[in-house]
Amino acid sequence: MAIALLIAGSVSAQYYTPRRGYTNNVNTGNSNSDFYEPRIGMDVGVNISNTTSAYNSNFSTNTLTGFHAGLTFDIPLIYPISLAPEAIYSQKGYTAVTPSGNFTQRTQFIDLPVLLKFNVGPILRLYAGPQYSFLLSTQNTYDNGFVVTNQQYYNNTGTKAILDGVLGVAFDLSRYVDLRARYTLDLKSTSSVNSAYQPDYRNQVWQFGLNFKF
Fold first, then answer.
1. Which residues touch 116 (CB under 8 Å, ≥6 apart)?
2. Longest dimension (CA), the chain
3. What is the reported pLDDT for 34?
4. Does the model's pTM come out above 0.85?
């Protein structure tokens, strides 16, 4: 975050004027003249998720593809920093190959990130901050090659709220659309038991999507 602030400060010294932050020497459709206007948006995209273990190096899973969609907000603070709260429906999970067959876990979350947004140059945006994720449901599918079984249940720790850390980047394609990429990692494990059979695993998600701003 410190490096991002230094870069953003350097860029703002080149492109920002105190009155409205207008970009004098960059010809772009998304100038800084509207920086202080709050924006609302709609984000849609794809998730590529799996899990990682903080203590068990032998624990590994394969990725699972899902999607995410929700509302985004841009609340300007002081140039070049904005507050970016969001409310996102997000599919996460993982797949694993076991000696007895293939296992898939798909989870449904409501993610509530509260991020700081740094405007770096005319089109580049950096994001960083915490996120609370609330589990809605868990679906486990086991396939041994002959029988596929599905179960709906929740068997993690006593709370369904998980604290995450988020890092991201966005590129303004126009004044109304930007391309986003993010990495999210659980800061709290999803299991209270640390063993080879039930490791202390955490969700990690790569998100790619488009944000439509209004």
1. 1, 81, 82, 83, 84, 127, 128, 129
2. 69
3. 77
4. no
Structure tokens at 59: 């624990």
Chain position carrying tokens 């059979």: 197
Sign of the torsion formed by the C-alpha atoms of 89, 122, 7 and 17: negative
**What confidence tens digit (pLDDT) does each residue in 92-114 have?**
999 988 777 788 889 999 999 99
Q: Cα-flanking dihedrals φ and ψ of residue 114, to 5°?
A: -125, 100
Q: Tell me the two tokens of residue 183.
A: 């990495």
Question: Which of 166, 67, 150 minimizes the C-alpha distance to 108?
Answer: 67
Q: Which residue has the tokens 């989870």?
A: 107
Residue type, 20: R
- Three-class SS of residue 18? coil
Distance (Å, rounded) from C-alpha 88 to C-alpha 44?
9
CA-nearest of 174, 90, 180 to 126 is 180
In DSSP terms, 82 is beta-bridged to 76, 117
Query: What are the tokens at 44?
Result: 């849609």
- How crowded is residue 141: how many other Cβ atoms within 10 Å of its Cβ? 15
Contact between residue 205 and residue 184 where contact means Cβ atoms under 8 Å apart: yes
Q: In which element (H, E) is residue 123 found?
A: none
Alpha helices in 133-201 (DSSP H): none
